[in-house]
Specification:
Layout: H1 3-15, H2 18-25, H3 29-43, E1 48-51, E2 54-57, H4 59-86, E3 91-97, H5 99-115, E4 119-125, H6 129-134, E5 140-143, E6 152-167, E7 177-179, E8 187-191, H7 194-205, E9 211-216, H8 219-227, E10 232-236, H9 240-243, E11 248-254, E12 259-267, H10 274-297
Parallel strand pairs: 3-4, 3-5, 7-11, 8-9, 8-10
Antiparallel strand pairs: 1-2, 5-12, 6-10, 6-11, 6-12
Helix pairs in contact: 1-2, 1-4, 4-10
């Protein structure tokens, strides 16, 4: 099999017809058909079924498509790494991330930079990441919101649960856990927008509204407010270890615990840059590695 044949095959699968594929590839339809016959003869399989609107990939063809895409992605990565050795100019990946996740993901961003120093990460506080991805204002988004547009791919990363962070002199400081409903009469400090809207939904389902005195997109402002005794803060449990000090206490929630899934989102595009693909693959590997370490430590 020649690489050219694989490229032709993948484009036909994407286009859904030989006519559209030949226009994208800039070749004649007889050339396209002849190359696919050569490919089918080599593997002794049928790659396409003829349908009224064009062609559909056979089950055997789907296997070749899956492996073929993997081959093309590897070639893109190899091309990028080779070019990177010859060209020291930096490429940029723009990441839109909900503020509550920035603290947790900071070690990943640092590790990625150490591994790929010629890739500049532009990390932006962003709530409406789906719209920013659709408008191509960012390459990749990290969000807790469900995705509604079919042109945006959403990949599950991890689940976040919330716990209560309070001052050491708070009346609940000696409690290890409290029911979620106990927050009803409590002054709270919380992340604005995404986290707040999700927490408000949980409170509504329990029949009350949480009273917030400060809403912020800054982790440091949120923690400072708790240290000053202004109120309690609902924070992701992933942040607990990095925030611990003698002035703070952590109280777990019982029963109806707010939680949501964090996803990595990006535009479904055949022209995605290799650098963005590398980031997505590295992010998935990092999250799985953290999960394994947590399981091994018994947390």
């Amino acid at each position: 099999m020649e690489l050219r044949q694989l490229e032709y095959f993948i484009q036909i699968c994407k286009s859904g017809s030989f006519t559209k594929a030949k226009e994208e590839l800039g070749v004649t339809q007889p050339t396209l058909s002849q190359q696919m016959r050569v490919l089918e003869d080599e593997y002794n399989i049928q790659l396409f079924d003829r349908v009224s609107r064009g062609v559909e990939v056979t089950e055997a063809g789907k296997i070749l498509l899956n492996k073929g895409n993997a081959i093309m992605h590897l070639l893109e990565e190899a091309r990028y790494e080779i070019n990177g050795r010859n060209n020291k100019s930096r490429e940029t990946i723009s990441i839109g991330c909900c503020p509550a996740e920035l603290e947790y993901l900071a070690p990943y961003f640092m590790r990625f930079h150490q591994k790929y120093p010629n890739i500049l990460l532009k990390i932006i506080d962003a709530e409406d990441v789906e719209n920013k991805v659709l408008e191509q204002r960012i390459d990749i988004g990290i969000t807790a919101y469900p995705i509604s547009d079919a042109s945006v791919i959403s990949t599950y990363l991890y689940r976040q649960e919330m716990a209560l962070l309070i001052h050491s002199e708070h009346p609940l400081a000696e409690r290890s856990s409290i029911p979620f409903r106990s927050l009803k009469q409590m002054n709270s400090i919380m992340f604005r927008e995404q986290n707040k809207s999700l927490i408000d939904m949980y409170c509504f389902s329990c029949g009350f509204t949480l009273k917030s005195i400060i809403e912020t997109s800054s982790t440091s402002v949120l923690i400072h407010g708790v240290r000053q005794g202004l109120g309690a803060a609902l924070i992701p449990t992933s942040l607990l270890e990095s925030l611990w000090d003698d002035s703070l206490r952590i109280v777990k929630l019982e029963g109806h615990i707010p939680c949501w899934d964090i996803s990595l989102v990006y535009l479904n595009s055949v022209t995605m840059r290799p650098t963005a693909r590398i980031f997505i693959q590295e992010m998935d590997s990092y999250v799985r590695e953290v999960e394994v370490n947590l399981l091994c430590s018994g947390n």
